[in-house]
Amino acid sequence: MSEILIIGCGVSGLTCGIRLLEQGFAVTIVARDLPPDTTSNVAAAIWYPYKAFPEDRVLAWGKVTLDEFYRLMDVPDSGISAVTLREALTRPAPDPWWKAAVRSFRRAAPDELPRGYRDGYVVEIPLIETPTYMRYLMRRYSESGGRIEQGSVSRLAELTADHRLIVNCAGVGAREVAGDESVYPIRGQVVRVERLAGVGCWLAEDAGDAPTYIIPRGDDCILGGTSQDNNWSLDADAETAADILRRCQQIEPTLKDAAILEHRVGLRPGRPEVRLELEAIDDTCAVIHNYGHGGAGFTLSWGCADEVASLAAQWAREVDRLSTNRR
Asked: Taking the model in full, what pTM does it have?
């Protein structure tokens, strides 16, 4: 067995495709939306395990991805760089559960926190400039021999008769594709503004369900955000945008002078736990599910892709063994 079909051309589908090509498989991606029109392209991506479970598996996948991002910082045009993130908290809290994975971490001094915040920390993490990084992944995938077909997949049953191994990276679409009703959208809305000198990278966790974040990039700055469960709307809401601007300007007052460039919305794929497992359909066909990454698709991408590649190699050996026994 050498051919694999991947559903989805976001960050998960592309990283899986690259790792599978490196293993010697022939790979085709099929997806309705291609970069730059994917949820991954909307993301204000930093390495940060957000709304992804269970913590032990997430930490393992995240550490692999973190190491890969640090390696990619030395690759021209990858869009990966190091950034100092300051997280502000409204009440005292212990160190985050993922602290052991990062290279540099310290508690914030009181004078480093915005008004109204009582605790926080400062951490060095990778920043992923999604327009550049998604172009890099597309180029790397194509130059490695991967194929892409644009088209919709409604159900896995449409594909299992004609393919021996399918990798399901459908994101929130897995609710329909895999018939998994535990998948739900986590709506994220952001405001893209011009970058101003001196604006730092911030994440503020408030008592509500909407994290506030400021992510300066090379040519712009992403302001967020929202975390609205079970909201399927892809239309930018004016009141939500105004609230995002208000919250971000409280942290960085100079943002009041930043010109608004764009409003964008994406649907993160929520699930009680990330689903990464091999499902055997019969003796000749299997599906490797890789979805439900919540707000941590980029953060888990390479770790999950490595596990997908390992499962694919195991399945290929099993199919070859069964085929040999039948002769």
From this structure: 0.96
